[in-house]
Amino acid sequence: MARDYSPVSESSRSVCSDKDIEIVDLSPTDASTSHYSGSPASTFINIQSDEVEDVWRLHVCNLMSEQFAVSSVSTYFIFTKLFKETRRRLYNLTRESCHYLSMDESHRSISAQFLSALEVLVSQAECPHIFIYSDTMLTSSILEQHKFCVLEIQEHFETYVERRERAVERLDAIKSSLKLQSLGEPLHSFSGEEQRVEMCRSLYKLHFQLLLLFQSYAKLVTILQTGIKHTQQVTDHSREVTLLQQELKKAIHELENGLIEHTSPLPPLDPLTIHIEQSEMNLLDQLNKMKLISAVKLLHTYRSVGPSEVFGNSTMDDLDVLLSLYCRQLTEKKSGVVVTQPEHDMNRVCSRLLDKYIQLSSSIKALEQHAKLGREVIHTARIAVIDSL
Question: Distance between CA atoms of 207 and 91, rounded to whole angstroms?
């Protein structure tokens, strides 16, 4: 079986901005092609969480200069990894911010609104698993549209990063004020009120920016789906892989939560005797027989002794590794494409989040109005004191 673990047309070092970006080598090899077309495909790429932002930026730079869709097929996997990591960090930042906001009774309601929007974002905003060959991208004539949409995504992402920095600064300011108060420093109560309003405003802008990012990616997926509808001799395996994805999620959930009956442990493997292609065939055999729990456990065993570029770094990679392997098998002899259907439609999720953020915007305006009235009261009181002297 052909191996195509690193299909991205990128070198390990490149200058894409004002600084050097040094990342793992994601360059394609001679093995990164299919038996069918000899072209790279959008398969699993091993990316560390702390590298994903730089990997994404480097990918965008290389994408803009290419003509043969070698890098473009990797956009989907890299962005999905980027979105998951960005959402994870936003989750942590929002939870911590709401903890401090909730210390003041007047901000508990808006804190609950942020957490409600966060729940929708975490539980419903899902990127589809996409598998496509570069020759299919070229045949469907969507490369230029793809590039333009990626530029839009990149602009939203960089704005998101800037707003994330501001939100962290606002949170740090609240922490510093509380620490000073605990040390006995006299701080005006209304100063804390203004800090909390600033925190709400920054957090709202950050959440809304991630919505724009997700919305732009939904547009990119639509461009792909529209393009392949008019491409002849390309088999769409989306429905089949979507069903497998759903069952794999259940199997992974059962394993992670100890919901399966005791099974015999797999025999230990010798790292010196492991063969990658035979390991892949064994995994595919389990997937084809729908022995999904066995497939996941077998993947964990291979991961413990095999290269992470093939088997992933952790259980977080289980679904991507197995789906990529299965998609590659489906499309080996005849060009095919996969765009799985998320449990929640991407555009509908965007609409739900927009409704949440409209409510948040109204609540923040009310807080701002309250803060403004507070400032006016303080100002009036100061003038009265001066006049009395």
Answer: 10
pLDDT tens, 257-285? 887 765 655 655 656 567 888 999 999 99
pLDDT per residue as tens digits for the range 129-176: 999 998 888 888 899 999 999 999 999 999 999 999 999 999 999 999
The tokens for 388 are 């009395």
| pTM (2 d.p.) | 0.85
Q: Where are the beta strands (DSSP E) in the chain?
A: 13-15, 20-22, 130-131, 235-236, 336-339
Question: Cβ-count burial of 188 within 10 angstroms (0-12 exposed, 13-18 middle, 19+ buried)?
Answer: exposed
CA–CA gap between residue 90 and residue 159 (Å, rounded): 14
The residue whose two tokens read 């991961």 is 303
Alpha-carbon distance of 87 to 93, in angstroms, equals 10
